[in-house]
Amino acid sequence: MSVVVFAGAGPRTSGLLERLGANAPELFDGPLEVHLVDPFPVGAGRVWRHEQSPLLRMNSMAEDVTMFTDSSVACDGPVRPGPSLAEWDVSTVELDAEVRAELAAMGPTSFPSRRVQSAYLKWFHELAVESLPAGSSVHVHPTRVVRVTGSSGVRQRVWLAGRAGPLVADVVVFALGHLDTALSPEHAALRDYAEEYGLTFVPPAYTADVDLSVVPAGEDVVVRGMGLAFIDLVVLLAEGRGGTFVRVDETLHYLPSGREPRLHVGSRRGVPYHSKTGYRLRGAAPEGPRFFVASELLARPGEIDFRLHVWPLIAKDVAYGYYRELFTGHPSRVRMAWEEFAGRFAELDWYSSEMRGLAEEAVPGVVDRLDFEHLDRPIDGLAFDSADGFQEFLRSYVAADVARRSDPAFSADLGGFLALLTAYGQLSVLAASGRLTGEDGWWHGFFSYFASGPPPDRLEELLALSRAGVVRFLGADMWVEAMDGVFLAGSASVPGEVVRARGLIEARLPAHTLSATAEPLLCSLLASGEVQDRAGLVAVDPVDSRVLDASGVAHARRFAVGPYTTNKAQAAFARPNTNNPAFRQNDAVARAVLGFLAASAVDESVA
Ligand SMILES: Cc1cc2nc3c(=O)[nH]c(=O)nc-3n(C[C@H](O)[C@H](O)[C@H](O)COP(=O)(O)OP(=O)(O)OC[C@H]3O[C@@H](n4cnc5c(N)ncnc54)[C@H](O)[C@@H]3O)c2cc1C
Q1: How much is the mean pLDDT over the chain?
Q2: Atom number in ligand 1 closest to CA 520
Q3: CB within 10 Å: which end of the chain, N or C, has fewer?
Q4: In this structure, what CATH number is given to the domain that contains residue 103?
Q5: CA of 181 to the centre of ligand 1 (A)
């Protein structure tokens, strides 16, 4: 029987299994022996396992999450539609009582708990397994893959932790997902310093996996980072330690349990990520990419520089999506017909005085004009005399952001957001080509900050925690120094303020690169030249995701998908009807695997 081993069995692997089932009737309908190797539960994997705090939530709305292909997906295999998380009918599904209660109360625009998504993923995984060709078997190994050996010409030996002999596979698929990194020299030094002085230090990590009992109650702790890891951290250290939120006269208040630390939080921007929007488009449906089209850039010879060739086009596309919604959804706020604006807009560079002039002529309200630089660094250049004054200011900034992002009058922001998602997909095509240079991480940070922020009610909670004194905002261009046996921290926003703290938490996910990976499997493949490090990512074939070795040769029997590869698609679940790149990749990989198995079966029968 043909054997396929998956290293990692999170959501991506379930998606691949579904595509194997969907494509098998056309390409290779023989039974498969599938081995799923993962120390975490299959289907949900590490990130979406049920065993985590029920307080942790998705930052996606239920209607924006699907595991099923739909007619928008441009792939060679058959489309097999199914329900999004919001449409999921659980009447016949066995569920944990708390999860069932949450699902009963959930609406399409709710931001569900990770446990709800875990249940949806488990259910999808079971469907995907059932769809495999008749006679197939699936074996689960709750452990890690530590090594894989074998050239393209021979079956692969897949070595598992805690198992003496290897699994023997025709094909191996690496779907390792979000990975850990070794401590950087800076973090190792901070850890040593903390140990020496009896302080608390938490390096970058997946917040759900961190032992937060090391963070003492009542202690001043500096937190570096204001993204989603920070939101998770605050949830676990406040409500997770017994505090409660109560609403009195429209205002949310936090009642501390007394077990919270005092969190002094800052970052380079000094503000939290923008709130997710809570409405739908009012105007015309979005168009596909118009200005930033990966295939057009790839058709030109030479290097493609992110800042020079790519960002101005992304900015223009995002602005186009934004203004399209403003003009077609809110015509009373503009002074020109959309057709005229769009025609003139198309002719101009985003960073030109003519473009600025066009926006000023057509859009009278300053709040309705798009300014990426201000959006990106909204409090740069502001300096406050007192930390208390800065707290007031930042609370009003966050409250205004929540109000704007919850108000359908500003649905143009959603138009921009959708265009940004499209740009992300185009950029992944460019990145996979290997010709993109100069992307230093700014883009990913900006994307997350603009488009991947918390639900609005999390920011409301943050405001309540700030008023209760559990959270203190440090400001922008934050600095931290290990000095005087404590951590000192301050920022450019309140130049006169220095915080002395006995703890430092890096509130961000590990930034994985191949050279700094803590994953033994990748370390072993890198050491033997069986993977190629391309700007920190595992190089794979852009079409079928076959693993490339150090000299660029594709391994016939090894495939790799996910955020640590050059074919990284959007690091989020697919939204329905968006021709999601991960679906297209899964389909291409599944077809390549089945094609390979069919060809090997013929070879074997001839031999
Ligand atoms: C903290 C966090 C929150 C997120 N929240 C959202 C959200 O709200 N909305 C959204 O759309 N997207 C979100 N995402 C992104 C989304 O979860 C991911 O895109 C999705 O989990 C990717 O699935 P995956 O299977 O590729 O990776 P993972 O979910 O990381 O699964 C990979 C699996 O591989 C296993 N593995 C790794 N190495 C080995 C090995 N050597 N041997 C065996 N098994 C191995 C791991 O244990 C893991 O279970 C989030 C991501 C993170 C990290």
Answers
A1: 95
A2: 41
A3: C
A4: 3.50.50.60
A5: 15
- Strand (E) positions, 108-194? 137-141, 145-149, 156-160, 167-169, 171-174
Q: Residue 455 in contact with residue 111, Cβ under 8 Å?
A: yes
Say what the pLDDT of residue 604 is.
66
Residue 11 Cα: closest atom of ligand 1: 25
Asked whether residue 423 falls in the same domain as residue 321, the answer is: yes
User: How many domains, the chain?
Assistant: 2
Between CA 95 and CA 115 the distance in angstroms is 11
Separation of CA 85 and ligand 1 centre (Å): 17
Q: Cβ neighbours of residue 81 under 8 Å, at least 6 residues apart?
A: 68, 69, 70, 71
Residues 441 and 516 in one domain: no
Instruction: Mark which of 400, 428, 451 sits at the end of a domain.
Output: 451
Is 215 part of any domain? no
pLDDT at position 440 is: 76
Which residue among 16, 37, 47 has the greatest number of ligand 1 atoms within 8 angstroms of its CB, and so is best to mutate? Answer: 47
Distances from the Cα of 256 to the Cα of 208, 237, 413, 603, angstroms: 21, 11, 35, 69
Residues of the domain holding 354: 294-451
**Is any ligand 1 atom within 6 A of the Cβ of residue 493?**
no
Among the listed residues 171, 181, 125, the one whose alpha carbon sits nearest the alpha carbon of residue 9? 125
What are 173-217's pLDDT values in tens digits?
999 999 999 999 999 999 999 999 999 999 999 999 999 999 999
Residues 413 and 533 reside in one and the same domain: no
Q: Is the pLDDT of residue 599 over 60?
A: yes
For the residues 380-392, what does the mean pLDDT come to? 97
- 485 CA from centroid of ligand 1 (Å): 37
Pocket test for ligand 1, best of 176, 230, 447, 565 (most atoms within 8 A of CB): 176
pLDDT tens-digit readout, 489-547: 999 999 999 999 999 999 999 989 999 999 999 999 999 999 999 889 999 998 999 99
In a domain, 76, yes or no: yes
The residue contributing the CA closest to ligand 1 atom 10 is 572
313 Cβ inside 6 Å of ligand 1: no
Q: How many CB atoms lie within 10 A of CB 278?
A: 17
For the Cβ of 177 lying below 6 angstroms from any atom of ligand 1, the answer is yes
The values of phi and psi at residue 502, to 5°, are: -100, 10
- Decide whether any atom of ligand 1 lies within 6 Å of the 59 Cβ: yes
One domain, residues 558 and 441? no
- Amino acid identity of residue 524, one-letter, is S
Q: Are residues 25 and 106 in the same domain?
A: yes
328 and 444 fall within a common domain:
yes
User: Cα of 381 to ligand 1 centre, how many Å?
Assistant: 38
CA 57 – CA 61 distance, rounded (Å):
10
pLDDT of 122 = 98
* CA of 12 relative to ligand 1 center, distance in Å: 8
Query: What is the position in ligand 1's atom list of the atom closest to the CA of 177?
Result: 27
Confirm or reject: Cβ of 324 under 6 Å from ligand 1. no
> Does a structural domain hold residue 551?
yes
Domain co-membership, 439 together with 302 = yes
**Spacing, Cα 260 to ligand 1 middle (Å):** 29
Residue nearest to atom 32 of ligand 1 (CA): 177
pLDDT of 452 reads 85
pLDDT of residue 606: 54
206 within a domain of the structure (yes/no): no
Domain boundary pick from 451, 471, 492:
451
Residue 574 is classified by DSSP as B
CA of 236 to the centre of ligand 1 (A): 20
Average pLDDT over residues 585-603: 93
pLDDT tens readout for residues 265-316? 999 999 999 999 878 899 999 888 999 999 999 999 888 999 999 999 999 9
Whether 607 has a pLDDT exceeding 70, the answer reads no
Take residue 296 and report the two structure tokens written for it. Answer: 């057009």
Q: Which residue has the tokens 């094909």?
A: 171
Do 319 and 445 lie in one domain? The reply is yes
Residue pLDDT, tens place only, 52-84: 999 999 999 999 999 999 999 999 999 999 999
